[in-house]
Specification:
- The complex is a heterodimer.
- Chain A folds into two domains: 57-152, no CATH class; 168-266, Cytochrome Bc1 Complex, Chain D, domain 2 (Orthogonal Bundle).
- Helix content of chain A is 54%, strand content 1%.
- Chain A is built from 13 helices and two strands.
- Chain A has helices at 3-55, 57-60, 77-81, 83-87, 93-103, 135-146, 149-152, 168-172, 174-184, 208-215, 221-230, 249-252, 255-266; strands spanning 192-193, 197-198.
- In chain A, strand 1 and strand 2 form a beta hairpin.
- The mean pLDDT of chain A is 86.
- Chain B has 22 helices and six strands.
- Chain B has a four-stranded antiparallel β-sheet, with helices on one face.
- Chain B is α+β, with helices and mostly antiparallel strands.
- Chain B folds into three domains: 2-61, no CATH class; 68-397, Cytochrome Bc1 Complex, Chain C, CATH 1.20.810.10; 409-521, no CATH class.
- In chain B, helix 11 (186-200) packs antiparallel against helix 12 (206-214).
- Chain B is globular.
- Classes of the chains: A mainly alpha, B alpha+beta.
Amino acid sequence: MTRVQIEIMLGIILVLASSVLLIVVGLNEEERMEEFVKAHDAQAIEIGASLFEANCSGCHGSQGEGIVGLCPPLNDANFFTNRLREVGWSGTLEDYIVSIVSSGRTTSTRPSEYVGQGIPAMPAWSEQYGGPLREDQVRSIAAFVMNWEATAVEGVTLEQLATPTPSAEELADPVARGQTVYLQNGCGGCHVIDGLSAGVVGPNLNEIGVVAATRVEGLSAEDYIRESILNPNNYIVEGYPENVMPQTFGDTLDDQQLDDLTEFLLAQD
Amino acid sequence: MLKSLNFHENSQKVIRAIDNRIRIITAGLGIDELQRVLRGDPPKERPNPRYKVHTTSFLFHIRPRYYQKGSTLFAHTFRLGFFVTFFFFVELVTGVILMIYYVPTPAGAYESILNIMSSVPFGKLMRDIHRLGAEAMVIFTFLHMFRTYMTGSYKKERSFTWFTGVILLGLTLFISFFGYLLPWDQLAYWAVTIGTSMAESAPVGGTEVNLLLRGAPDIGAGGLLRAYLLHIILLPLAAVLVISIHYYKVAREHGISLPARFEEGDDVSQEKKKEAKQRIDYIPDLLTHEVFLTFVGLFVIIFAAIFFYNAPLENIANPQQTPLDTKAPWYFWWLQGMLKLGDKSLMGIILPTLIVILFIAVPYIDRNPHRSFTKRPFAIALGILSLAILIVLSYMGTPFYAIETPAATRILQDLAPEEGVGQLRAVPYEQLQPGIYETNVTPTSDLCLDIPYGCPELESLFAEFTDRVNQAEEEGKLSDAQGIMVIEEWQANLKKITMRIIWTDPESGESKTYQHNYYLHEERLGE
């Protein structure tokens, strides 16, 4: 055979082989695309989880359990079954979450339970409305929140880690106990304490242990802090609006917790 | 009656008509001649009908009528130039297909890549081939140039062809570089940020060029659109023009160089030298060979794209978050390596410019008329030395060289990189047993007695974590170090993994913590 003939023959074989490869790929395309969509949705939930931890957990709790008097829970059955009817939303729950996370909320829909009478109840998070997040990030957060549906309504239960028992040292230290109270009640969602929380809605608490004594004449630092927790509207720091901080901590905190929290705040200097 | 049909005459008429039609289609070859072509016989008609098409057809008139036999030896050219052209066309075709789905805006770009991957049949294959073809084109362009240099084929009448070749190497690199940005993921964004910031280091006009490329101080909507237009219109048009000039020189003026031994080899007989100068016609020999090579190329690139290559796609570009291991596209690592060696404007602009000028001037500097290896030892040595320097500089350009990351950050980044899979994400979901694992406290074997078949991947991850922390401690990078890994069920199908390294700062004696949280979903992509 001449070189030309060999090349023609091999060429034909190669064309056939390439066609076979393409056909095999083509037959698997549907499945591949489905897999990609699944994996991408999973990734959106992972990203949403990180964003939620960084931006939302301060008020809504690290696992979306909410904080009484401050922010509603996002992981309960009510949110998944009742919420849309409550606010009269016509779209899907996911759209609702995207919308609220994007543009925030100027007033609370349940002012008797949560903050937001005449002042913003939730900040806007989307770049479009002056927030820090891109649209795709907002959608990832919504995907993450939607993923609570299984545990909220479908009866899936999660294995809980045995919380490591606090050491005796920690138990004996009121400041350490107070820090736990501070974190568990969402104080960090609005207030800054360096290294602990980064909220910007309320006054900075970095040096509250010192500042508290100078705020109101004749009132000791301890009394000032205690009063401010129980009746926030009594002493409003200049430049901050009234009625933002929940006035329910008197009911939700017991005396021991209140003492510990006060001790903890006095230690911030 | 049969006679009255005049069968013979009519059939002759039909055959003549068909023959005529074929001559029009093939621009000169009749049925008889086509048969002779396939049989491998020499042309029968005079003048040679196989040359006619070179004057009547545009596409054939830019092809050579023949090459000298010696210049078509495979071991002389390795068909490198052919394959560069081949990849150029592959890029053209796949690129146009991808353009149908691509939107050059920051909000739309990444989204459109996801769309190509998730809802366009053959979309992933097109993307893989386009990316692989681009990498291959850069490699083949470089190899083609290196071959030309080593065989001394840039001399005399080929000096200008060499010059256009240098321009084409530059165009190839820049087309590829601007294409790099288009997926708008972290990889793209930061590689191009690094690349364009090199332009900034130019002593004169650097800031302006950088601003012109990026469209703003940082790459944003403007920069993306500019990169897109450069990638799809301006640079390819320039490439088509220069390729035409480059190829026209080869095809119509000086041909492919003969291997040096046929020109100046002392031990090669006159007969062989004469044989090497025999003509090999374009039709049929070279044409079939080109078509054959095209099918070889197509098969290889389709095969490789399906089985061995996945075009990278990282998370969407985030200008606020610089990834830990940022690097330029690999073909610019040598430049990054040079930048680590000294002053930014000297190493980043002045020296590279000199190198390019030197590169273009090679045929004019090298006055040695000989082309054999043995008769130009200095040039050959310089070529090999340059290649070695290029490789070393490229290595120095990677983050492995002369960049020190804090030990704890390094360990977590290696186990669970920001992008890609990594050892942590490679652990099968069901093996992620909730619990608290402390290095040097928790045993590294038999971790999951409740899981059927155990959890070998989780164990080896934890063993690696323990090793790395202990190793950093031995090397003195961390003192009193302990690693803690907490796995929690976070949502249905979602687990949270906390990786924490605690150590004592030797200077202040304070306890330091570096921690990173990872969320892993059951259906995530991971091998």
